[in-house]
């Protein structure tokens, strides 16, 4: 059942980021370009995402266990360390330069764009490298 819930959640995420325009790197870059032709529409997507997160976290705090799993998977540490900062920096630079982050890039594979395919392939290679190179 948990695999089915994860699949449905992934489909809902893909639909949401597609409808919102997050799979369009030009739209994302326009949102990030505060000094140029700024497109504030993705701010509404962020507000929506934050409201879902806050609601979900309130449910987690109120319940002892999720409906379809034995326990909640909440990060155990709140420490801001070197690997977290390096990862956030790489993520932010990549998002700002290319206009993609992992979720929207995977959803955008449906467009068949060579650039998107190249980005996702490079992202996968980066995951394998990151597992082999210790940052701490």
Task: Explain briefly what this protein structure is.
The chain has 136 residues and is mainly α. 68% of the residues lie in helices and 0% in strands.
Q: How would you portray this structure in words?
A:
With 136 residues, the chain is mostly helical. The protein has one domain (2-132). The chain contains 6 helices and no strands. Helix 1 (2-20) packs across helix 5, helix 2 crosses helix 4 (82-98) and helix 5 (102-108) packs across helix 6. The N and C termini lie far apart (36 Å). The mean pLDDT is 88.
Compute the number of strand runs.
Answer: 0
Spans of 5+ residues with little confidence (pLDDT < 50)?
Answer: none
> How would you characterize the largest beta sheet?
none
Structural class: mainly alpha
| Straight-line N-to-C gap | 36 Å
What level of helicity do the residues show?
55-70%
What's the shape? globular
Number of domains: 1
Strand content: under 5%
- State Rg: 17 Å
Could you give the topology of this structure?
Layout: H1 2-20, H2 25-32, H3 41-62, H4 82-98, H5 102-108, H6 114-132
InterPro entries: DUF6691
Transmembrane segments: 41-60, 80-100, 106-130
Keywords: Membrane, Transmembrane, Transmembrane helix
Features:
globular; about 140 residues; about 70% helix; mainly alpha; single chain
């Amino acid at each position: 059942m948990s695999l089915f819930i994860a699949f449905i959640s992934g489909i809902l995420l893909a639909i949401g980021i597609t409808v919102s325009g997050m799979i369009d790197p030009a739209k994302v870059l326009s949102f990030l370009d505060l000094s140029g032709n700024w497109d504030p529409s993705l701010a509404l997507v962020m507000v929506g995402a934050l409201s879902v997160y806050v609601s979900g976290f309130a449910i987690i705090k109120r319940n002892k266990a999720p409906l379809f799993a034995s326990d909640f998977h909440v990060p155990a540490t709140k420490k801001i360390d070197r690997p977290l900062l390096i990862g956030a920096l790489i993520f932010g630079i990549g998002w700002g330069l290319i206009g993609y982050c992992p979720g929207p890039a995977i959803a955008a594979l449906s467009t068949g764009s060579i650039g998107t395919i190249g980005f996702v392939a490079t992202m996968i290679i980066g995951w394998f490298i990151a597992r082999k190179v210790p940052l701490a």
